[in-house]
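Weekly modeling sync, notes
Attendees: S.R. (lead), two postdocs, one rotation student

Agenda item 3: backlog of single-chain predictions. S.R. asked that every request posted to the team notebook include the full sequence so nobody has to chase files. The rotation student volunteered to paste the first one in as an example of the format we agreed on. Action items at the bottom.

Example entry:
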Amino acid sequence: MTNPYDIAFKRSIEDPDGFWAEAAQDCHWYKPWDKVLDDSNKPFYRWFTGGQINTCYNALDFHIENGRGDQHALIYDSPVTDTIKKYTYSELRDETARFAGVLQDLGVEKGDRVLIYMPMIPQAVISMLACARIGAVHSVVFGGFAANELATRINDAKPKVIVSASCGIEVARIIAYKPLLDEAIEMSAADARPRRCVIFQRPMETASMIDGRDVDWNDAMDSAQPADCVPVAATDPLYILYTSGTTGEPKGVVRDHGGHVVALKWSMKAIYNVDAGDVYWAASDVGWVVGHSYIVYGPLFRGCTTILFEGKPVGTPDAGVFWRVISEHKVNCLFTAPTAFRAIKREDPNGELIKDYDLSSFKALFLAGERLDPDTLKWAESKLGVPVIDHWWQTETGWAICANCLGIHQFPVKEGSPTKPAPGWNLHVVDPDNQPVKTGEIGALVVKLPLPPGSLPTLWNNDQRYIESYLEEFPGYYKTADAGFIDEDGYAFVMTRTDDIINVAGHRLSTGAMEEILADHPDVAECAVLGVEDELKGQVPVGFVVLNAGVDRDHDAIIKEVIQMVRERIGPVASFKTATVVKRLPKTRSGKILRGTIQKIADNKEYKMPATIDDPTILEEMEEALTGIGYARAKK
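Predicted structure, as returned to the notebook:
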């Protein structure tokens, strides 16, 4: 029997113009589009050409005009500063309009770039929306990012203004941002440096100011006149978000205005099943794509209340903080990374802290950013009693490629699968020769062009790199650089990055499948498996496991058990014979495990300190762990 999902998906592929034109009717346009999908300059597809729109108007003013001015738009919850501050739609619009006026006073015009280097504070959101209000292009860089990494982004974006804060706050330390910013500006090219910097002074750290360049946020806001929304072309760039490139040079992913508003507003109901007035929480950071799409833009386009959380899943103050936020603010839907739940599970394996809070408002948990192992899925399902939805997407795509679309039709969950392609995403599995593989067979996951609205139209000032990075290897398709398969029911399984499929004596094996098995062990909190060089077999898998809090069993016994589990479930062909217990795994600030860096250490290759690493000292621990199991230390 045909279900609503099948109808929506079929129409989105066969009649994309009609499908997305209908979704676009739900948004505010100053001028309607001339063409829904413009394919006149392949492979550079454009959505809603000829249309004029304003992203900030759709996020704020639109709802005030429709009677939601007194509803909360943003709730800032900061356990690290013991602060909760709420903004209605009217209050957030007024603050945004004033800061847009500040930017205009500093000479920022439509098309100029503004770099935002901020912690998770309301001023970061206000800065993003203010840029959108006047047609400036924002580029958010993680607050606390190393100076040289910040400098590369300054060189590429050439911002007229940089907006920053005096400091960011981690669980046990204050990170001064201003010295890093000053150093980055010094390191950047003379023609790329900003004319002015706006600094928000936080009470716990006062930054020194440079006369003639630096402007105090509060002083500037006191004298600013509010700015109106500036209509922009649907195809104009809204923001640049840098993602790591294989060459070490960051790639500036571009998002446009029109397709972005349409896709994200549509996704809030279709995928997350939230309505205007609901409370939505993406526990991420505005430095990541999740923060752009689902802390700032998506929820506000939909008329939701969005949560801005400055804290961690554990340690601020304990593993119950997520439940406290859900209970206190009556959160309906939470979106976070599996890593967050593994951290919570490790600290509170029986979920005792959940019992302290009223979660009656809570309807669904969405997880993404890395592979969701079945053990974490089962734990969340059993402890929370709500749908736990894995979904898969990337910085480049801007929203989910695959999801269990709760607002269209809820499918049964299959462990290890983000369910089916979302409408608009024509997903295929191909071999290295760009030929379809058999159902259930692992291959490269690719999306047939054109990509739907909201995905990247190109890279900033680098059309050629866009083609080389995403379109060249599989002509006619977008390369996700993920590997997996689609089963007989149409469910997609994302196993691993294509360059992380390991080749053991001619057998192509998924490290993700092995990680699932290790995660099934009752003592294992989280794990990583990667392939290291082997003279005999080309590559062999090596496992790293972090144990649950309170486990005091013999580590050797646990290692023997996980090795036996892999042998039983995959077989001797996996050649999984080496694993070790580590205190923690090196991760990015969003929680992704830095497998590539571990692999280079294991293979005794030179490696560069990853710009996004959460704690650099952990790499020394990894070197010692690898030395302990017979792998030589690498040099940075």
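Discussion: group reviewed the output briefly. The domain at 505-628 is CATH 3.30.300.30 (GMP Synthetase; Chain A, domain 3).
Action items: rotation student to repeat for the remaining queue; S.R. to check formatting next week.
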